[in-house]
Design a protein that fits this description.
Chain B: It is found in: Periplasm. Chain B: This is Plastocyanin/azurin family copper-binding protein. The structure holds two protein chains of two kinds. Chain A is mainly alpha-helical. Helices cover about 35% and strands about 0% of the residues of chain A. Chain A is built from eleven helices and two strands. Chain A has a two-stranded antiparallel ribbon. The chains are: A mainly alpha, B alpha/beta. At the A-B interface, helix 1 and strand 1 of A face helix 1, strand 1, strand 5 and strand 6 of B. The complex binds copper (II) ion.
């Protein structure tokens, strides 16, 4: 009798355990259905709203307008660099999609740098900065680049004296940062605030998402389907909504990773196997303006980019598990390219300020 | 009958394990862990279940427990068994915004 009760209890325990875990099991089942939820390719459809960019976080600071106006002058001012010849805009050129059109950046005295200049388009939505993510906010990114020996090589002591002796800068700093000094902190805050105004959120794609059916052609809509479809382009796995980036790191199998001394990228910051040769996923709005592509600038055109992904990368050593050979027809590849072109607005001329 | 007895015997063997070691489930969904902080006991197991339609990774550089369980797709999980008290910072190497803390108590 006693053993009978014991047995009953014995069977009851796993049963209760299962009962306790039931909500977990249910949530797992529902979640997988949830994440595979269907996207409807109709302009303005609710399932597409995840691609709408939120209002950018520019105006949150007090005196935000004064700060970004000051930041715009500083951004274009080469006197911030050691030799007085190198501004933020030297590499982040508004005429070249806020990048430089080069394979990899050229620093002071023509020194070639290792990586391509990232575009500043939609940097306000960015959560982590630099190709290897070594900066966690835009202000520290600004100071890092300004102080880097082969970049602006700023002598901050001299620079702060220059700014405080220039009457216009002195006045603008006082307006932008009442009660604060002209220092590295306010300097970086102003430039970062300006950079956050470089926004692309009215592309043909955005207008189509908002419901304007004529904004994208039938081919472009088909290209968007290729982009999202996991068994086709699988692009959205990393180029997530809403800013076409997962703010993450991937080794996409570039040829340069097979060189004798490859750039290890994210691995230098987080020494985890998967990070070896991994670089940050760039957002895609404005890419029509930012060629060449990839962190090493090895793709000259969007067609080259698509070809690279279609063949599943060139070097498969430590390649990201999301990378695989794609079965895309010639037409699908063309549609994908047309879709990517719908992520850029035609540029208006950009007025560059006269420096004080 | 023999099979029945054998089954009872095996369950009786497993039973104490069911009682002592807890299994904690942490979901990975929408590029987030389902919790920022988890309190567990030495000997417990923590399962990280990937519910996103893309790969996640699990690693920790903590002194308490150093591990890299690699990357895995939707529907799969990786687990760790904690062996000593302390704090374990868990991260995803693909998505740096994903991080959580496991507090292991005696
Ligand atoms: Cu992840």
């Amino acid at each position: 009798m006693a053993s009978g009760i014991y047995l009953k209890g014995l069977f009851l325990q796993p049963f209760l355990l299962t009962l306790l875990l039931l909500p977990e099991l249910i949530s797992v089942l529902y979640a997988s259905e949830d994440s595979d939820s269907i996207t409807y390719f109709e302009p303005g459809h609710p399932s597409l709203q995840q691609w709408l960019l939120p209002v950018p976080p520019i105006t949150t600071a007090a005196n935000a307008v004064e700060q970004l106006q000051l930041g715009k002058l500083l951004f274009f001012d080469p006197r911030l660099s050691a030799n007085g010849n190198f501004a933020c805009s030297t590499c982040h050129n508004p005429s070249l999609g806020w990048s430089d059109g080069l394979k990899t950046a050229i620093g002071q005295q023509g020194i070639s740098l290792n990586r391509a200049t990232p575009s500043l388009i939609n940097v306000a939505y960015n959560k982590i900065f630099m190709w290897d993510g070594r900066q966690s906010n835009l202000e520290s990114q600004v100071l890092g680049v300004m102080g880097a020996e082969h970049e602006m090589n700023a002598d901050y002591e001299k620079l702060l004296i220059f700014l405080s002796q220039n009457s216009t800068y002195r006045r603008l700093f006082a307006k932008a940062f009442p009660g604060k000094h002209i220092n590295k902190e306010t300097l970086a805050a102003a430039i970062a605030q300006f950079e956050r105004t470089i926004i692309s959120k009215n592309t043909p794609f955005d207008r189509w998402i908002a419901g304007e059916s004529a904004a994208m052609s039938a081919d472009q809509v088909a290209g968007f389907q290729v982009f999202i479809n996991k068994t086709k382009g699988n692009c959205a796995s990393c180029h997530h909504p809403p800013n076409f980036t997962d703010d993450g790191f991937h080794n996409i199998g570039l040829k340069s990773f097979a060189s004798s001394n490859p750039d290890l990228g994210r691995y230098n910051i987080k020494p985890i196997k998967i990070s070896k040769g991994a670089f940050k996923t760039p957002p895609l709005r404005g890419i029509g303006l930012t060629a060449p592509y990839f962190h090493d600038g090895s793709a000259a055109t969007l067609t080259d980019v698509i070809d690279h992904y279609t063949q599943g990368g060139e070097v498969t050593t430590n390649i990201d598990p999301e990378m695989k050979k794609l079965s895309l027809s010639k037409i699908e590849k063309k549609q994908l390219k047309l879709f990517l072109e719908a992520l850029t607005t035609t540029t208006d001329s950009y007025p560059v300020p006269i420096l004080p | 009958m023999k099979v029945y007895k054998l089954a009872c015997f095996s369950i009786a063997l497993i039973y104490p394990l069911l009682l002592t070691a807890d299994v904690h489930i942490v979901d990975q969904k929408n590029k987030e862990f389902s919790t920022n902080e988890l309190r567990v006991k030495v000997g417990d197991e923590i399962r990280f279940t990937n519910q996103d339609p893309f790969f996640h990774n699990i690693f920790s550089l903590s002194d308490t427990m150093f591990f890299d369980l690699g990357s895995y797709p939707q529907g799969e999980f990786r687990s760790i068994k904690v062996k000593q008290p302390g704090v374990i910072e868990v991260e995803c190497a693909i998505h740096p915004s994903m991080n959580m803390k496991i507090i292991v108590e005696e």
